[in-house]
Amino acid sequence: MGTVYLKVFVLGLVGRICMGSVEVNFVMLILGEDVNYGYFATAPMYDVALLRVDQQYPGLISNSSISVLYQSQDAADCAQAGAAMNNVAGRMFDLISRKRGFPVLFSPGCSLEVAPLADFAREMDVLLIASTSADASFANRARYPTFVSFGPTGQGGHVPSLKRFLRKFAWTTVTVFCESMANYLNVASFFGLTCRSIKALIASASDEFTVYYEDFDSRSPKVNFRGMLERAKSQSRIIVIETRQDIVQKIMIEAHKLKMTAEEYVFIYPEPNRRPLDISLLKPTEEFTGEVENV
Q1: Which of 99, 81, 241 has its CA nearest to residue 175?
Q2: Does residue 150 sit in helix, strand or coil?
Q3: What is the pTM of this model?
Q4: Taking a C-beta distance cutoff of 8 angstroms, is the pair 159, 194 a contact?
């Protein structure tokens, strides 16, 4: 919500300074009832954000109108939702054509939903702001000159960024912990995709990198995080972890017990969710009551 609040504030401020008395039309483009991107999850966020802006900066967005373009759609995943966005884009065109003033579009959709909207926004020469979606393709300013994304790095950008990061510090020996694809189905595809991408991308520079992989099942009663870390310790100083946040916490607690949380070791965790759990990866739990050093 804070991100949306900041965006609306900046837009209102720019509109007030640069456009004078020109009316600003805020249009929210929302598809379906997905628990992450849908109407009931996101529409109240925009309402509260605009209300807070108006309360804190009276009159800043007074010369504006607010519309919500909502289309009911049962989409099983992002790809299916993206296929329905041409209809939304057509309705967006009709709505903007009827309204006066300067249009500013918001979309909480995933990357495949937002991409066709961004193409339409380019052709209509209007500003489209995405609150959650992100993809490496959006960096193409020739294709998306009127599109801005405030989302985190998309899946397509994680592995190329990792490769550059490793090269920057000349880290060429890496251990990768990969969660079982059978676990945590809502994010399992992310883990599997990232692990496969790491293997493919780094393998393409096999003369440059040495990579050790270890698949593990965090739900198995036989899982041994200490043993995994001890094996990694004998192989490399750079460890990439692909699993859920709460499992990362358990791994990091074991790493602390093995004195692997000092500056000699580097742990890299590509975040699969745009809203991570609010936990400290080294926060003591009932399983560990020793002191945690500030590292």
Answers
A1: 241
A2: coil
A3: 0.57
A4: yes
If one counts every other C-beta atom within 10 angstroms of the C-beta of residue 199, the result is: 15
Token representation of residue 252? 């990091």
Residues 159-216: tens digit of each pLDDT: 777 888 888 999 989 998 988 766 555 555 566 667 777 777 666 666 788 888 888 8
Residue 225: count other Cβ atoms within 10 Å of its Cβ.
Answer: 19
Q: Are 89 and 6 in contact (CB under 8 A)?
A: no
Total count of residues recorded for the chain: 295
Distance, CA of 32 to CA of 86 (rounded, Å): 14
Q: Are 8 and 53 in contact (CB under 8 A)?
A: yes
Q: At what angle do helices 245-257 and 225-233 cross, to 10 degrees?
A: 60
Whether 34 contacts 81, CB under 8 Å: yes
Beta bridge partners of 127: 104
Burial zone of 241 (CB within 10 Å; 0-12 exposed, 13-18 middle, 19+ buried)? buried
Measured between its terminal Cα atoms, the distance across the chain in Å is 31
283 contact partners, CB below 8 Å, separation of at least 6: 249, 292
Query: Which CB contacts under 8 angstroms, 24+ apart, belong to 36-39?
Result: 36/110, 36/132, 37/81, 37/108, 37/109, 37/110, 37/113, 37/132, 39/70
Mean pLDDT of 127-133: 83
DSSP 136: G
Please determine, for residue 242, whether its predicted confidence score (pLDDT) is greater than 90.
no
Q: Tokens 């050093």 — which residue?
A: 293
Provide φ and ψ at 71, rounded to 5°: -125, 125
CA dihedral for 26, 31, 33, 36, sign (positive or negative) = negative
Round to whole Å and give the CA distance between 53 and 12.
Answer: 9
